[in-house]
Amino acid sequence: MARAYGKTVGEYFGAKKSPLIVRSNALDSHVAATYLKSDAGTGMTDPIPAEAALLIAVQLRPLFQHQLWLDGRKQVSPPYAAGAVTMVDLQSRPVANLMGAYECVQMYFPQSALDNLSEIEEIPFLRNVPLLLGASDRMLEALGRLASFAVNPIGAGSAILLETMLAGVCRHVSSHYGGAKIGPSNPRKVSILSAPQERQIKEYIDAYLDTNISLITLANLCTMRPSNFLRAFKNTFGTSPQQWITDQRLRRARHSLVFGDESLAAVAVSCGFHDQSHFSRVFRSAEGIPPGAWKLQNRP
């Protein structure tokens, strides 16, 4: 059985950085995001095996010299501006010829993951998705930049990130390209979390902070669809679940650094970071200095 494109994207584009592959147990699937950059082009890619998956690419800088074939047919390939979006069904066996400099992020969504989340969100399944080549789509561009931020430079992603991206893709592509009429589900009812819901969410996150917490699990605790829960959470806490969980991990890490004797690697794992390197990058981004130096400054 062939490996999924999301796991092998680097082999097609000569990427030195591995894809960010995040699994969602709630969806029984994974997505991948890959940051790709070349200052001289990488030439022709090998044909990508047909696969039931959606590929969305967002250009982080203009792309001038490129060609694309789908099912053996050459496509019109004008220059793409920064922020341009390409959306391709991988059943079409794409082949690209990248003749000049490029910088982009690719997001890979297996059809099984899209179907599972569509069922949870109670929206139509994505079928016959239209081809986008260098299109302007602010929502998909924003999702691509979110994926780029996760892959480079902050590092390891999470189930929350994966499921947030999937929820955005499912609802946006269904409503804008699939003809489905999807609107907010009575936003007055889900504008904020109730006091018991807020308490339950805080207790759950605190208990499972060292694990890969799932958006879908949190939404299920409140008996909400993921998209409704995202809105209610932000209105209640003033930030996204991803950021709030990161803040709680940093809070626990600061306490461990001041009052504990664990190594930095042990603190990273116990607080739910992917590894010590990921912990150090996130901590330094928040505090301005590495965790080791912060520890020396703040120990009693």
Attribute tags:
HTH_AraC-typ_CS; 18% strand; transcription regulation; four-stranded antiparallel β-sheet; DNA-binding; Arc Repressor Mutant, subunit A; 300 residues; Jelly Rolls; 3 domains; globular; six-stranded antiparallel β-sheet; alpha+beta; 10 strands; 44% helix
Describe the structure.
It is a single chain. With 300 residues, the protein is of the alpha+beta class. The protein has three domains: 5-176, Jelly Rolls, CATH 2.60.120.10; 187-238, no CATH class; 254-298, Arc Repressor Mutant, subunit A. Helix content is 44%, strand content 18%. The protein has eleven helices and ten strands. It has a six-stranded antiparallel β-sheet, with helices on both faces. A four-stranded antiparallel β-sheet has the order 3-8-5-6, with no helix packed on it. Helix 3 (138-154) runs antiparallel to helix 4, helix 6 (215-221) packs across helix 7 (226-237) and helix 9 crosses helix 10. It is globular and about 65 Å long. It starts with a helix and ends with a helix.
What is the fold named in CATH at topology level of the largest domain?
Jelly Rolls
Percent helix: 40-55%
Span between termini: 57 Å
Mean pLDDT: 84
Q: What is the H level of CATH, i.e. the homologous superfamily of the largest domain?
A: Jelly Rolls
Total helical elements: 11
Numbering strands along the chain, what is their spatial order in the largest sheet? 1-2-9-4-7-10
- SSE order, one letter for each helix or strand: HEEEEEEEEEHEHHHHHHHHH
Radius of gyration: 21 Å
